Amino acid sequence: MLRRTHWLRHNARLDPAVDYEEIYRVLTTHEFPWDMNQALSLALFRTYAVPSIGRLLDGTGEFGRRTQKRYDDTALLLEEILLRGLRSPDGLAAVRRVNRMHRSYDISNDDMRYVLSTFVVVPKRWMDDYGWRPFSPGEVAASVRYYLELGALMGIKDLPGTYAGFEALLDGYEAEHFGFDAGGRRVADATLALLLTFDPRVAAKGVEVFSRALMDPPLREAFGYRAPPGWVVAAARAGLRARARVEARLPARRTPQRARDLPRIRSYPDGFRVEELGTFPRAATAAGGAGCPVLPLR
User: Fold this and answer.
1) HSE (side-chain half, CA atoms, 13 Å) at 223
2) Where are the domains of the chain?
3) Is the full-model pTM beyond 0.85?
């Protein structure tokens, strides 16, 4: 068995300016696989509360018709980049697939910056609140560097260079832009409905209330969701902290846990091809999506 602190010590021996991909891969597949899955799902969920993003996602019709596939495709594309490497042929193929989808729509650079900031900030905040330990300073720096490099490959401009900068970007953007939109609410409802199917042993109503209990007031208000009773919020968060205390006593994970191996990823029982993931809107041809390059690193 590996000592609980094995991966913490492993990451401490690495240089976050150079080994950021390895550090972030360890965090996601060995040290915090369940927590990172929850945190990144919450990060994407937050983006629906920005009306320009929620309205666009609703307008594609994909979240209403194929919610499971959209969930799976997002997880698999992000994981392919992580596991294969940002600059590997397979990783670059996944980035190109993401870029081609994005170029099919009129998405502002500000919205793209905000979405990327959620991937940096929300996991750290989740670990601070619910992880068996917080990220180390080196792990935070590696996360920032990882998403700076991914953002460069996606052509996102004017990204902050530090965690504090990403945090200020996220908080400021949410304070200015969070608001109710019927389309964003439909995307949020469809996503919550999907979550209820992941564990049929648990009462659907309980999962739905638990999910709302973990949302902060600005997020709930943006969707028009009713706040659960205070005792439910306290119980939900206490339950996650109790889970963290148990996990702190377990040995470190020796075998990486991949999203593609989880039972909640259901769309590709016989495997998948990166070039077939995601959406293929007709606008892609007109927008030049078929030739969307991976931009050189800055």
Assistant:
1) 25
2) 11-268
3) yes
